[in-house]
Amino acid sequence: MSNNSVSRLASELKNFLAAQDEDDLMIAAASQAAASVSPKTTESTPAPVSGQDTLTIEFRRTQTALSPQSQEDFSVMNKTQKQAALKELAQTIQTCTRCPLGATRLNAVPGEGNVNTDLMFVGEGPGFDEDRQGRPFVGRAGQLLDKMIIAMGLTREQVYIANIAKCHPMVDPLHPEKHGNDRAPNADEIACCRKYLEQQIAIICPKYIVALGGVAAKALIADAKSLGALRGKFYDLHLDNVKLPRPVQILATFHPAALLRNPGWKKDAWIDLQMVMDQLGLKGARK
Which of 165, 49, 175 is nearest to 99 (CA)? Predict the structure, then answer.
């Protein structure tokens, strides 16, 4: 075979591999992440929903990250382009079956809000009420989040709200009608959904993200330790699968569900939110 033929075949193979979706790579990385979890964190009884105060799973983000050459490169979009891109992404999420959650959910929950917002909130995953309505943060925790947003001087419609996992993680998937059946998403589920959230962030391109709870914070902040160690500081957001069109900063605070269980933490959460308010020039709600 001539040198020209060998070069041509090599070029075609390179183009073919470059055109493949990263899904297989992400799923393989998710399996590696799951294998790295200690026996204590892989017991058959999953952690309760919003378990950021007892989270022990370590997300090895260096294993899941793609090389800079493999990352999708997003540019700043106008409002119409953002709406179209998010609609197309939502349709993909609503038919996704990449992990077992796709077989047990009632509705996928892509996210909702202002596509041109400077502020985005990211939680861990949908619960009982969200699974039925297909909307994020509509249960008791969502009602508290609405009050937190209003206290900042904004409305729910002025921000964007999403979750790491897009489908309802359940302790007992065979009985989705049960209340109290929520749990935090595991490493495999987060890895499967990660690309969707990263694309949402890149499309919306907010100035600031508030990670609600330890699960969201540890999944999005590199080398994250614990929620307590992360709070009180802004971090530059670095995503695994996409290139951001401009810098985004992320701040970690308590999940609203944790605040319902521990009302004494609300003052600390308010201190965190005031840090974001200062950066955005918000004065808070008028009394």
Answer: 165
Residues 137/260, Cβ–Cβ less than 8 Å: no
pLDDT tens string, the chain, 287 residues long: the values are: 554 544 554 444 444 334 334 333 333 333 333 333 333 333 333 333 333 333 333 434 434 445 555 678 788 899 999 999 999 999 999 999 999 999 999 999 999 999 999 999 999 999 999 999 999 999 999 999 999 999 999 999 999 999 999 999 999 999 988 999 999 999 999 999 999 999 999 999 999 999 999 999 999 998 788 999 999 999 999 999 899 999 999 999 999 999 999 999 999 999 999 999 999 999 998 76
Q: What is the pTM of this model?
A: 0.77
| Distance between start and end Cα atoms, the chain | 81
Phi, psi of 120 (to 5 degrees): -130, 140
Q: Who contacts 38 (Cβ-Cβ below 8 Å, separation ≥6)?
A: 56
How far is residue 40's CA from residue 38's CA, in Å, rounded to a whole number?
Answer: 5
Structure tokens belonging to residue 216: 């969201």
